[in-house]
């Protein structure tokens, strides 16, 4: 059974960039809903009980047709949000660190160029979805996904994602997605993203 993860900070920790009420509703209502719906769906497939969520998202064909859409939507939502919360901090913002900083520069030219690429991906995602920094066959890349789809479903490894569903920003920013995206850069926890990147690199070498 999956559980709603605790936030690593208080609901008000990301103010003024993301307001406390939005964080509370986003975490305790929306994310909880994904977890509850995922668990309910998987009750119909006890043979998947020991499978990690990442494994299911990488190969949804192992999920019975009857619950595949529910697992895709709610499993993706649970996975995406779990990474999202960890990728933000009251001490966030600034530039990436360590090897990740060097490799972003190598891939995108400059950090500012990368930032614009990810911002453009977030702004051009029609309707609800996510924009991502991912590892794609070992290369750093910017992409976006619709709804609660995870990059794992495309064989990519998510390193950093921004939620551009309206529930992520509507109370504070109304329809001004651009203002929300701009504010979000001030809370990105680059130390966490760098640790995630190094962990993924280590796993790849060990495989």
Task: Assign the CATH architecture of the largest domain.
Answer: 3-Layer(bab) Sandwich
Strand order in space, largest sheet: 2-1-3
Helical segment tally? 8
Strand content: 5-15%
**Average pLDDT across residues?**
96
Helix content: 40-55%
Rounded radius of gyration (Å): 17 Å
Number of domains: 2
Residue windows where pLDDT falls under 50 for at least 5 positions: none
What sequence of helices (H) and strands (E) makes up the elements? HHHHHEEEHHH
How many strands appear in the DSSP assignment?
Answer: 3
| CATH fold call of the largest domain | minor pseudopilin epsh fold
**How would you characterize the largest beta sheet?**
3 strands, antiparallel
In CATH terms, the superfamily of the largest domain is Iron/manganese superoxide dismutase, C-terminal domain
Shape: globular
CATH C-level name of the largest domain: Alpha Beta
Content-based structural category: mainly alpha
Brief account:
This protein has 207 residues and is mostly helical. It has helices spanning 20-42, 53-58, 65-86, 98-108, 111-124, 170-173, 177-184, 190-206, and strands spanning 129-136, 139-146, 157-163. It has 8 helices and 3 strands.
